[in-house]
């Protein structure tokens, strides 16, 4: 056993390490929650868990004594308790390395329970908990490692002189360890301060925008799924994709949170007059709406990066007309608040299709991550050349003069959508009873439409499937039907025919440079019932 530490600086260094490591973990988890736009950081989630599980009589008692059972009181108590706990964790770490590991693990489990037991949690909500946990372990071991060396040096020196040196040593190991400890305290303290302040700024701005968004009442028509568009096939993608399930693609690590009153769009370039529109200007115009299926160019055959929503907004052709496009222009370069950009063929914005500057998605103000307050939606083109979120600038120009974000990186300049079809049921690897098997999925070729979908079992003849009725050529269609399946392993293949009568090619091509082609094939097995 090392000697009992006397009350010297060395003994104080350990609790200090505990406090700083504790703060580092809490701050890291908080900042992670803000970056991931998770409503409550783990610390607050625990507070909410306490509130949820506090029995009524205790609440009454607290009310009597403190006048209010409010969250700031609770958070204050929790902070004091945490400070004390982290202080002792640091002290205990000196004798028993596993005590901090145990305490951090218990705290992480508590936070995870708090998250999982809250309403509407998602798996990503656990990420801040994991980040906090790892930060605790790493920060504490970084801080205590030089202290351990100091202790070891003191013990050695003590052994050499025949008696333990009480408290502070003065040998080279002590001086070096001490210096290193102080450097690490300063470095970790600095990082904690910076991360904490940025998390706070990020969190408060985002929270305000989210609140504004939630309180917005836009005068848009509510989505009404057209009759006949939905087929009765269990397990296929819903025709209308809910906002929470809609795929997301952003290059930004932290998506922009823009207050509507801070938003404006400048339309300039090859135009007769520059136009600047505010959010209110958009709302003051007549809003159009349309069902449009959005798809990502990087969606592999059979992949999930596609969704169908009801979009409301202002027609882009009208805005371009206000600006007066000059002859010679063939592209509109859009830039988002976060600096991403893309160029869309001018023709796709002016040929009468429902190209919208959208303010609402499925009847609600756009979710922040889907471009709030305003984004572009253009039927028939992949998102990377048309669907600019948080759009703030539109420059009428020529393709010859632009080099946009993804085209610089090897993706095609024009991004017309290719015919695609997907099998949703049976799922790959599924096991079903043999006999009549229900199959189904979705198919799309926005702005051209889908006229037929067929499946082939184990290389057999193409069998026509039933199609849902859709309101326009700009959405996907559900397809479904039944096939006869004997026992054993099977391959099911699907292909669509577009509105021009062109059959989807079986030739397999990668998503790069301008979208994948090929048939979706699913393997499944059937057992004797
Ligand atoms: N500002 C911005 N807009 C963007 C992107 C982006 O990274 N940043 N990604 C684009 C791509 S590649 C696609 S497929 C669509 C996806 O839109 P969603 O995230 O709302 O589904 O947005 C487009 N708009
Ligand atoms: Mo995309």
Residue share in helix: 25-40%
End-to-end Cα distance:
69 Å
Instruction: Tell me the fraction of residues in β-strands, as a range.
Output: 15-25%
Uncertain runs: 1-7, 160-168
Major sheet strand order: 2-1-10-5-6
Quaternary assembly: single chain
Protein structure class: alpha+beta
Tell me, what's the shape? globular
> What is the succession of H and E elements?
HHHHHHHEEHEEHEEHEEEEEEEEEEEEE
Transmembrane segments: 12-33, 73-90, 97-120, 126-143, 181-203
GO molecular function: heme binding; molybdopterin cofactor binding; sulfite oxidase activity
InterPro entries: Ig_E-set (IPR014756), OxRdtase_Mopterin-bd_dom (IPR000572), OxRdtase_Mopterin-bd_sf (IPR036374)
Keywords: Membrane, Transmembrane, Transmembrane helix
Provide structural commentary.
With 529 residues, this protein is of the alpha+beta class. It has 3 domains: 195 residues, no CATH class; 167 residues, Sulfite Oxidase, Chain A, domain 2 (Alpha-Beta Complex), CATH 3.90.420; 108 residues, Sandwich (Immunoglobulin-like). It has 10 helices and 19 strands. The strands form 4 sheets. A 5-stranded mixed beta sheet has the order 2-1-10-5-6. The N terminus is likely disordered. It binds ligand MTE and molybdenum atom. Molybdenum atom (MO) binds next to loops.
């Amino acid at each position: 056993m090392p000697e009992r530490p006397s009350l010297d600086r060395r003994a104080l260094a350990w609790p200090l390490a505990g406090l700083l490591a504790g703060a580092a973990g809490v701050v890291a988890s908080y900042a992670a929650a803000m970056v991931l736009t998770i409503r409550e950081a783990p610390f607050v989630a625990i507070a909410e868990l306490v509130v949820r599980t506090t029995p009524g009589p205790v609440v009454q008692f607290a009310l009597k004594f403190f006048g209010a059972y409010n969250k700031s009181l609770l958070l204050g108590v929790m902070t004091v308790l945490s400070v004390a706990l982290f202080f002792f964790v640091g002290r205990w770490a000196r004798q028993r390395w596993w005590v901090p590991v145990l305490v951090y693990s218990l705290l992480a489990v508590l936070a995870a329970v708090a998250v999982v037991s809250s309403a509407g949690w998602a798996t990503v909500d656990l990420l801040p908990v994991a980040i906090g946990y790892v930060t605790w372990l790493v920060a504490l071991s970084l801080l205590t490692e030089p202290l351990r060396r100091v202790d070891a040096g003191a013990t050695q020196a003590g052994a050499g002189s025949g008696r333990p040196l009480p408290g502070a040593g003065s040998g080279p190991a002590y001086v070096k360890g001490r210096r290193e400890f102080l450097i690490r305290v300063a470095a970790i303290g600095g990082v904690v301060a910076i991360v904490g302040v940025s998390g706070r700024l990020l969190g408060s701005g985002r929270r305000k925008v989210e609140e504004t968004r939630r309180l917005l009442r836009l005068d848009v028509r509510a989505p009404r799924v057209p009759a006949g568009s939905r087929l009765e096939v269990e397990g296929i993608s819903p025709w209308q994709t809910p906002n929470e399930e809609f795929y997301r693609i952003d290059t930004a690590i932290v998506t922009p949170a823009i207050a509507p009153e801070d938003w404006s769009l400048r339309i300039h370039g090859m135009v007769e007059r520059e136009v600047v529109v505010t959010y209110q200007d958009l709302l003051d115009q007549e809003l159009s709406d349309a069902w449009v299926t959005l798809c990502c160019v990087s969606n592999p055959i059979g992949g999930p990066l596609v969704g169908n929503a009801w979009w409301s907004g202002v027609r882009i052709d009208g805005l371009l007309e206000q600006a007066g496009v000059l002859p010679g222009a063939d592209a509109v370069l859009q830039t988002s608040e976060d600096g991403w950009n893309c160029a869309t063929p001018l023709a796709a914005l002016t040929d009468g299709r429902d190209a919208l500057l959208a303010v609402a998605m499925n009847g609600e103000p756009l979710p922040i991550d889907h471009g709030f307050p305003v984004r572009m939606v253009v039927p028939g083109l992949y998102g990377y050349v048309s669907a600019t979120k948080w759009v703030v600038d539109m420059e009428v120009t020529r393709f010859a003069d632009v080099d946009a974000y993804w085209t610089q990186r090897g993706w095609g300049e024009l991004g017309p959508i290719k015919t695609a079809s997907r099998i949703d049921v049976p799922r790959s690897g599924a096991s079903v009873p043999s006999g009549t098997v229900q199959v189904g999925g979705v198919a799309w070729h926005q702005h051209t439409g889908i006229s037929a979908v067929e499946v082939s079992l184990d290389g057999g003849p193409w069998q026509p499937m039933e199609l849902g009725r859709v309101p326009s050529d700009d959405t996907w269609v559900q397809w479904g039907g039944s096939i006869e399946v004997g026992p054993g392993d099977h391959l099911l293949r699907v292909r669509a025919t577009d509105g021009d009568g062109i059959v989807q090619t079986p030739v397999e091509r990668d998503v790069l440079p301008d979208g994948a082609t090929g048939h979706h094939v699913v393997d499944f097995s059937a057992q004797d019932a």
